[in-house]
Amino acid sequence: MGQNLVIVESPAKAKTIAKYLGKNYIVEASMGHVRDLPKSTLGVDVDDNYTPKYITIRGKGELLDNLRKKAKKSDKIFLATDNDREGEAISWHLAKVLKIDEGAKCRIVFNEITKNAIKAAIKIPRKVDLDLVDAQQARRVLDRLVGYKISPILWRKVKWGLSAGRVQSVSLKIICDREKEINDFKQEEYWSVECLLLKDKKSKPFLVKLSSKNGKKLALANKEETDKVIDELKKEDFIVNSIKKSTKNKNPLPPFTTSTLQQDAYKRLNFSTKRTMSISQALYEGIEIKGHGTTGLITYMRTDSIRISEEAKDIAKEFITTTYGGEYVPEKPRVFKSKKNIQDAHEAIRPSHMEITPEEIKGNVKDEQYKLYSLIWNRFMASQMASCIMDTITVEIKNGVYTFKASGSFTKFDGFMKVYNYKLDEEDNDIKIPLLDEKDLLQSEDICGKQHFTQPPAKFSEASLVKTLEENGIGRPSTYAPIISTLLGRKYIEREKKTLYPTELGNIVNNIVSEYFKQIVDIEFTAEMENKLDNIEEGKVVWNSIVNEFYKPLETAIDIAEKEVAKITIEDVVTDIKCDKCGKFMVIKHGRFGDFLACPGYPECKNTKPIVENLDVKCPKCDGNVLVRKSKKGKKFFGCSNYPNCDFVSWFEPTNEKCEKCGSYYVKKYNKTKGEYVECSNPECKNKKFKEE
């Protein structure tokens, strides 16, 4: 048997697959795309049916020469790039540069990197799917036309280096519209009434809330109305009117899609969408695990489907039965209802090897990889387990014409909650309600009115933005993280703690694009364009016609914008820091690697400085101050202002407070349950103090 060449995108993936294929196969990595549109020009011939002009990506020449040499020596070539549009396009470009015949069966696909999946894929190679390639080509050309036609207008009218992307622009508008909604919001006052009631003097009080008057919902607008109700309540008795007991099944959530994984990782682990995708890519491609070698731990992580293969269901059932007991297996296999308009090209995200538990990999992988794998493993396993059974009680209590309600629940059988807990609603709290009977007379310990104010819509977090994009059909699983990264990188939005908000620059760009390119920022139009790309993938329409349909009105809008958009000047933020060369107050500039201070006297004075945040904390080693600094990779750390004369450095934020036990300085840390706390920096002491202490 001769030599066979398999080409994948990454070295990690190559290493994992090589382990399964044996000595007759050489597995090489293309390191992603090998050809693309040129950066210096439009690269699309608008007059020739929008034909793209591809060139070899700079720096890929030597790599391609190596692939060509190995391809010539190989009996067969298999293109094993990711099983999506982007992966299909990479395979198509590789086939072009390696001169593989268009009709050759050289493409292999798989949803998970396991021995069985790889061996099975090798047996049934297919031709490169040109419909998938055309769908990716259409997206690439559309995005290039928008970016290279609208961006120059922003350069000339606002500021050099700005960009306007097709999906990026509508995402920015969603964020800007939310901010406007928050700013325009008018707060309104309302009140509620709560009572602490006792069955008798020996029992503990329980809380009930006023729900209605004469059977109708009661709305209290101010303190006067509330006090009047409280006065009336004090004149009457509290009597148990009805008690309803029931058993409720709480069902597990479906396995993760790309969107739900990004949302949950953000909420539970504080991972950005970009970080989540980077970690999940490594888990998919393969990690060295003791006793298993290089192993792909999860299935493909770019998916909008909650579908699970029958084989995976059977393996999960056997694992659950053996590990937790037969009672944790549902009577019937679970079927989750899919949303409309999904591609459903891949299974949901799940473990490739269910027997490899999170605890087994803990010492072999990075902490972030362990945490994300745990999330994926637990969520999938829970999705295949029995429901959690809750005993619930709802008590209705009468006081004259007023009705109060109290609800409580407790867990009868934990079911899937044994591995994955989530809060379904407020009734999930195990509220303790004493044993009551109808007509019981209850004693009132306290009646109080509470003032509330209506709240504006919440600012977007990365998780809620991804959810909104998905709900509105904006983008696809592979695009959510790049959209947010681009908006942050362009300084159109900023992140403060966990919330996203538009910058002045973002609002300016959004106003221009919204006024002159309404089609681009129209949510329904953008969602419909995604559907048209899906139609191209399914072979229903020709990709050039979709591009033409989009570009003709865009061309007209560009001509109008060129004439009508007025020049806008964005003033730099002036600081109180003087330039030590010419004495002028320095301004904040935005650069490729972040913000920095620059002299406004440029080009006569070219002085620049990094922006340094002073913590107002004394250095533990000398008389300097502690400053916030950044490593070459952008990670925040803390160092002394007297560097290099003082070498103090810490990854955790130091404080001026000293440890009562050993005298070392405290550093700030965070705990999910108790929140922020301080811990002694001395590794032999590690004394901790939480806020309540």
Summarize the structure.
This protein is α+β, with helices and mostly antiparallel strands. The chain is 34% helix and 24% strand. The strands form nine sheets. The chain has a six-stranded antiparallel β-barrel. The protein has a four-stranded antiparallel β-sheet with strand order 19-20-21-22, with no helix packed on it. Strands 23-24-25-26 form a four-stranded antiparallel β-sheet, with no helix packed on it.
Defining key terms:
693 residues, alpha+beta, Rossmann fold, Topoisomerase I, domain 3, 4 domains, 6-stranded antiparallel barrel, 4-stranded antiparallel β-sheet, 30 strands
Query: Going across the major beta sheet, what is the strand order?
Result: 8-9-15-14-11-16
Round the mean pLDDT to the nearest integer and report it. 91
Please identify, by name, the CATH architecture of the largest domain: Orthogonal Bundle
What is the tally of helical segments? 17
CATH superfamily descriptor of the largest domain: Topoisomerase I, domain 2
Which residue ranges are poorly predicted, with pLDDT under 50 across at least 5 consecutive positions?
A: 424-429
CATH topology description of the largest domain = Topoisomerase I, domain 2
Q: How many domains make up the coordinates?
A: 4
Backbone CA Rg? 31 Å
Helix/sheet category: alpha+beta
Total number of beta strands: 30
Shape: globular
CATH first level of the largest domain: which class? Answer: Mainly Alpha
